[in-house]
Design goal:
The complex is a heterodimer of chains A (134) and B (104). With 134 residues, chain A is mainly alpha-helical. Among the domains of chain A are: 60 residues, Helix Hairpins, CATH 1.10.287.1480; 32 residues, no CATH class. Chain A has 4 helices and 2 strands, in the order αααββα. In chain A, strand 1 and strand 2 form a beta hairpin. The N and C termini of chain A lie far apart (75 Å). Chain B is built from 5 helices and no strands. With 104 residues, chain B is an all-alpha fold. Classes of the chains: A mainly alpha (134), B mainly alpha (104).
Chain lengths: 134, 104
């Protein structure tokens, strides 16, 4: 089995190279006050990008939807809107549990998954919430 | 004052409505033309959405305190517990597998 020199020096060289590049096109601060996993990071990136491009998107959408403007401008606006990166769209954003990163069975008022909510509520960590009985 | 014998014409009433809308900041679109006004009318919600996972500067974390008061030699109990468990697992040969090198 031939062992190529490059394969041996590869990992050793890597230590002297630049640290791993940030995995998103734009660098942002990782959230500190909630559970963080890859999906939460992706969602946070989308949220920040949506906030950044919101005005542009709204303007383009307005131009595309306004029937009183010339059709060519409307078409161009529509094309430009669809060519915007998809991580700037609002519908890509999904609320996630702040304790577990889960996006299912979320209770919006608490930003928690149903199980995380139950755990925290039973531990008394959610003010004003107690076991129901009536 | 003088009593009206009959109501003003519809055009005149519409003029009043238009003026009233401009005074009170309402929209006036009697022919219901689709002019995209509802897109401009809606509030911007970017800031609220980007703050969903919390604002990092709102509260300091344990690592911030460690940085500000190094002389106190603070120890985070949660982090210490986590490191202890990692050590334990390594002792039992259950630690995380070695990272696969790029050339592999």
């Amino acid at each position: 089995m031939a062992v190529h020199d490059s394969s041996i020096s590869g990992p050793i060289l890597a230590l002297h190279q630049v640290s791993m590049p940030f995995r998103f096109p734009v660098t942002f601060e990782v959230p500190k006050h909630c559970y963080v996993n890859a999906r939460v990071l992706r969602d946070q990136f989308k949220r920040l990008q949506y906030a950044e491009h919101e005005v542009t998107r709204k303007a383009l959408k307005y131009i595309a939807r306004n029937t009183e403007l010339p059709p060519r401008a409307r078409l161009e606006a529509q094309l430009q809107l669809t060519s915007m990166p998809k991580y700037t769209a609002f519908n890509q954003i999904r609320d996630r549990c702040v304790a577990t990163g889960n996006s299912k069975s979320l209770i919006r008022d608490f930003k928690l998954n149903r199980t995380a909510f139950r755990d925290r509520a039973r531990a008394g960590l959610i003010p004003g919430v107690k076991v129901a009985s009536w | 004052m003088s009593l009206l014998k009959k109501l003003p014409s519809q055009a005149r009433i519409n003029q009043v409505k238009e003026l009233s809308a401009s005074i009170f900041g309402h929209t006036w679109n009697p022919s219901c033309k689709r002019n995209g006004a509802k897109i401009l009318k809606a509030d911007l919600r970017g800031p609220e959405i980007s703050k969903y996972y919390g604002v990092n500067d709102s509260m300091p974390t344990f690592s911030d305190f460690k940085q500000w008061f190094p002389e106190l030699k603070l120890v985070d109990p949660k982090e210490a517990y986590r490191l202890h468990m990692v050590q334990d697992r390594k002792k039992r040969n259950k630690g995380a597998p070695k990272k696969k090198s790029k050339s592999g």
